[in-house]
Amino acid sequence: MKLFLDTAELSEIETAVGWGVIDGVTTNPSLIAKAGQDHETQVKRICGLVGNVSAECVTDKRDDLVVEGRRIAKWHPNVIVKVPLTPDGIAAGKVLASEGIRINVTLCFSVNQALLAAAIGAWCVSPFVGRLDDINEDGIRLIRDIVDAFRAGGVTTKVLSASIRHPLHVSQSALAGADIGTMPFKVLESMFKHPLTDKGLAQFAADYKKSQETRAAKS
Ligand code: G3P
Question: Is the pLDDT of residue 147 over 90?
Answer without folding.
Answer: yes
